[in-house]
């Protein structure tokens, strides 16, 4: 049985098939030649992601993973001493580490916005912090869905608050892309990062970044190469237009093709339909787990997603994972090291994640719950 491991979903056959075909062409005629042949397929990937996000293909950059996508956006921001970065308690470790590094180098200040009574980012607190503080608010950077729980942060309300304050908004959609509809206009984000390998069911080693055309013109990438810039003279260069300035020349062409197929596959099923199915399965799983003795469901938020987290009294999360794995039930764990703003504040050191996707069945949920009951 395969649960989603917070989004590490099984790729559908059309995705792997497209990648294998391209790799076979690389083996037959060479990498450069195969890439030239695949120009239309790569173009389709930009178009498919743009359709998913309701933006222009020129506002999409294809990169190696979600972290690189997020980093390219964040490290393009010009931060100075006293500038404030506003984020959430649910922020992912890689993002928090980047905040801290930027703070150490520039003197920028990291502010963690409080949670409301439901455990999601408190938009009223965000608005207060945007309106006043010891220094200028330069960036709102929030994780849409955290890796350590089923919470869905109110991304559109956050976007409206950032827009009203005239502050750029970077949304980490790593766990929400492919699980929920994402319209960048409705979300109000200026930048959005995501991976191909989670709920989109795409290949590992793929990711993408949306940057609005207006903001992209004002940002210079933290590093450039001959794809993201043009060497115009011995002492001059020009940054590439649009979001492509955040790309690098070398990439996995097969991976990019597979990513486009995965996005099209999700769009054909329908993201609203995917969300409804995933939400229904996750709600059922939470209900069944909550009824087991010694098991506590740990998900927060007014709105919840397909990531289901729980603990078993007296049993370490890693031990739960190992015992379930022995029965060919794939779950994963999340610990305080990846969520230091969040889990310790809730008195938790780790949780088990059993994240569903639309291909899971009711029988599989029952099988998981029987196995967890045996552990407890």
3D structure, described in words:
By secondary structure, this protein is an alpha/beta fold. Helices cover 40% and strands 16% of the residues. Helix 1 packs antiparallel against helix 10, helix 6 runs parallel beside helix 7 and helix 11 runs parallel beside helix 13. The longest helix is centred in the C-terminal third of the chain and has 20 residues. 47% of the residues are buried. The model has no long low-confidence stretch (mean pLDDT 96).
Number of strands: 13
Gross geometry? globular
Q: Helix coverage percent of residues?
A: 25-40%
Write the element-wise H/E pattern from the N-terminal end onward.
HHHEHEHEHEHEHEEHEEHHEEHEEH
Structural class: alpha/beta
Beta-strand residue percentage: 15-25%
What strand line-up does the widest sheet have? 1-7-6-5-4-2-3
Write a concise keyword list for the protein shown above.
single chain, 376 residues, alpha/beta, seven-stranded mixed β-sheet, four-stranded antiparallel β-sheet, 13 helices, globular
Summarize the structure.
This protein is α/β, with parallel strands linked by helices and 376 residues long.
Question: What's the SSE blueprint?
Answer:
Elements: H1 13-29, H2 31-37, H3 39-53, E1 60-63, H4 66-74, E2 84-88, H5 93-106, E3 109-113, H6 123-131, E4 137-143, H7 155-165, E5 169-172, H8 184-187, E6 191-195, E7 207-211, H9 213-216, E8 229-233, E9 236-239, H10 253-269, H11 271-290, E10 295-297, E11 309-312, H12 317-325, E12 332-335, E13 350-353, H13 362-375
Parallel strand pairs: 2-3, 2-4, 4-5, 5-6
Antiparallel strand pairs: 1-7, 6-7, 8-9, 10-11, 11-13, 12-13
Helix pairs in contact: 1-2, 1-10, 3-10, 6-7, 11-13
């Amino acid at each position: 049985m395969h649960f989603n491991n917070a989004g590490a979903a099984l790729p559908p056959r059309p995705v792997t098939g497209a990648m294998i075909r391209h790799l076979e062409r690389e083996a037959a005629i060479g990498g450069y030649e195969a890439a030239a042949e695949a120009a239309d397929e790569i173009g389709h990937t930009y178009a498919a992601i743009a359709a998913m996000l309701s933006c222009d293909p020129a506002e999409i950059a294809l990169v190696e993973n979600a972290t690189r996508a997020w980093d390219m956006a964040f490290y393009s921001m010009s931060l100075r001493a006293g500038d404030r970065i506003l984020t959430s308690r649910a922020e992912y470790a890689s993002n928090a580490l980047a905040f801290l590094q930027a703070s150490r180098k520039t003197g920028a200040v990291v502010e963690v916005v409080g949670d409301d009574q439901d455990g999601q980012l408190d938009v009223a607190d965000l608005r207060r912090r945007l309106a006043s503080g010891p220094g200028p608010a330069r960036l709102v950077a929030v994780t849409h869905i955290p890796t350590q729980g089923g919470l869905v942060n109110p991304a559109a309300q956050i976007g409206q608050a950032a827009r009203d304050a005239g502050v750029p908004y970077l949304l980490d959609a790593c766990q929400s892309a492919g699980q929920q509809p994402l319209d960048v206009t409705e979300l109000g984000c200026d930048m959005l990062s995501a991976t191909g390998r989670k709920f989109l069911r795409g290949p590992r080693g793929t990711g993408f970044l949306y940057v609005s055309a207006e903001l992209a013109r004002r940002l210079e990438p933290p590093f450039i190469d001959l794809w993201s810039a043009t060497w115009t003279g011995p002492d001059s260069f020009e940054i590439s237009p649009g979001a492509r300035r955040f790309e690098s020349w070398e990439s996995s062409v097969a991976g990019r093709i597979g990513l486009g197929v995965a996005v099209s596959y999700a769009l054909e099923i329908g993201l609203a339909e995917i969300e409804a199915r995933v939400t229904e399965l996750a709600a059922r799983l939470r209900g069944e787990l909550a009824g087991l003795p010694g098991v506590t469901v740990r998900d927060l938020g007014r709105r919840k997603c397909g990531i289901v987290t729980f603990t078993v009294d007296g049993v370490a999360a890693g031990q739960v994972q190992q015992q379930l794995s022995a029965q060919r039930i794939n779950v994963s764990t999340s610990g305080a090291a990846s969520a230091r703003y969040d889990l310790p504040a809730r008195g938790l050191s780790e949780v088990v994640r059993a994240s569903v996707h639309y291909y899971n069945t009711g029988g599989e949920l029952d099988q998981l719950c029987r196995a967890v009951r045996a552990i407890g």
